[in-house]
Amino acid sequence: MSTSTLPKLTPITQPWIKDITGELNLPNKWIEQYGSPINLLNLESFKLNFKRFDQVFNQYGVKNSVFFARKANKCKSFVWASKEYGFGVDTASLNEIKECIEVGLDPERITVTAAVKNRALLSYVVEHQIPVVLDNLDECELLNQILGETDKSLKVGFRISGFSHNGEKLYSRFGFDIDQIVSFISENLSESGKFKHFKYHGLHFHLNGYSTEQRADALSQTIDVADILKKSGFETSFIDIGGGILMNYLTSSEEWETFHQALRKSVKSENPEITFQKDLLGMVNVDGELKGEPKVYPYFNGLNQEKFIGKILGSDKGGMSLADHLIVRDIEIRLEPGRSLLDQCGITIAKVAFRKKDSHGRLLVGLEMNRTQMFSSSADFLLDPIFLPQNTIENSPCEVYFVGAYCLEQELLLKRKISLNQHPQVGDLVCFVNTAGYMMHFYESEAHLFDLAKNLVVEKSDSWKVTLDGDFELSKEVGEKGAF
Ligand SMILES: Cc1ncc(COP(=O)(O)O)c(C=O)c1O
C-alpha cells in the first residue's frame, strides 16, 4: 500500500487502454519486436471523437466540415481514417498534402493552412486543385504567378485576425487584418483585379488559447465581414474557425485543484518537493510570493469537445444564435481539430532501463526513451502514468522521477514526482496515456542517433494485433481485395 502524500492526477482511460495495459504479454511482445518506446494508436476512438463533433453540428442544423489538423500527429493512418470516416485533413506542409492525395482523399476534403507556402507547395495545390487558405500578400503574389504560368484558377480562403474582444484587439502574427480584408478582396479579386484567377471561397481564423468567448466574437465579426463582402459580389461559402478545441484528460477536478494547491505550497522551504527541484511549471517566485499561473495545458476542464463547440454555436449575436446566423446565410462552418480529435487515440509505452539515486538522493528511473518522444509546449504532462511491473513485489512503495536518454541534466520525462506502489525493476514497463495529440511527434528528434519510436496501429479482432503505421493503409487494401 502506498503511503505517498503526493497529489494524484488520474487519467481518463478508454477500455482499449485498460485491455492492453491489463495484458502485459502484449506490450512486452511489441516492445521486444519494435524496441522501446512504442506509440500505440487506436483509430476507433478517432471515429468516436469525430461523431461527437458531427452530432453537435447536426443538433444545431448547421452545414459543416471537419478537417483533422494533422500537425498534431504525423501518422498516415489518421489520414486514411479521415478518408474512411468521411472527413477531411488540414495540412501544414507539402509532404502532408502529398500523403492526403496518395491516400485518395478528395482535394475538396483537404485544406492547406501551412504557415509557409513555397513555390513547390503552391504549384502542387494548383496542379491538384486543392483549395488553399492564404495568409499574406507575398503568398498571394506567388500563387498568382503560378496561376498565370499554368493558366489555371484556384479556390482560395483568407485567414484573418485582429478581432476585437472586450475592447482590445487580439494579437496574431497570422492572417490579414480584419479591418483590411474587405478592401483587399474587393480590389484584388474583382474581374479586373490583380488576383482575378483566385476564386474566393471563404474565411478562416485560428485563435491561440482556449477561449470560447474569443472564438464566438471572432466568428461573429467574420460573419459581418462575409456580409460586407457579399455586397461587393463575393459569396462566402465557408467560415473555418480553426482548432484549439479543449479536450479533458483527467477524471477528477478535485485532484486537479489539489495538485495546484500543493504546487504552490511546495515553494515553502519546510515543504517537500512535488516537482523536480521545486519547478514551478512557469510560475515565478518573487521573494516568496508566486506570480503568474503554471504554463500548462488545462488537463482538467469541463467544457470540452462537443460542449465547447456547442457553446460557440449557441452564442448570441443580436438576438439570434451564431449557428442560426450561419444557417440563414447558407455558410458552412469548418473546424480543424487536432488534439481533440485524438482524444484517447494513443498511448506511449517504454521500458525501465535503470534505477539510481541522484546526488541529492532522489530516486531516478531511467526509461528507454527520450524527452522529445513525449513532449509538448506545456510545462509538464500532468497525468499519472500507468506502471506495469513484470512481477509483484510486496510492500515497496516509492516516489520517483522518470528520466530519459538524452545527455542533459534537464532530461526529465515528467517534472512531477510520481508515486509507485512498488519499487520498479529493470524491464518493467511504464505507459503514458493519451499521448497521440502533440506529445508523440511534435518535438520528436533524433539526437544521439536514436531511432524514432515505432508507431503501431492496434486493432482487435479475436485478440489485439498491431500494424506499423506505414504499412497500415497497405494492409487494409490487401484485406479489402480478400488476400487474407
Ligand atoms: C491553423 C491551425 N488549425 C488547427 C490547429 C489545431 O489546433 P488543435 O490541435 O489545438 O485543435 C492549429 C494548431 O496549431 C493551427 O495552427
UniProtKB/TrEMBL annotation:
UniProt cross-references to InterPro entries, sorted A to Z: Ala_racemase/Decarboxylase_C, De-COase2_N, Orn/DAP/Arg_de-COase, PLP-binding_barrel
Keywords from the UniProt entry: Pyridoxal phosphate
Residue ranges occupied by any Orn/DAP/Arg decarboxylase 2 N-terminal domain in the UniProt entry: 49-269
Cofactor: pyridoxal 5'-phosphate
Domain of life: Bacteria
Protein name, entry field: Y4yA family PLP-dependent enzyme
Organism: Belliella calami
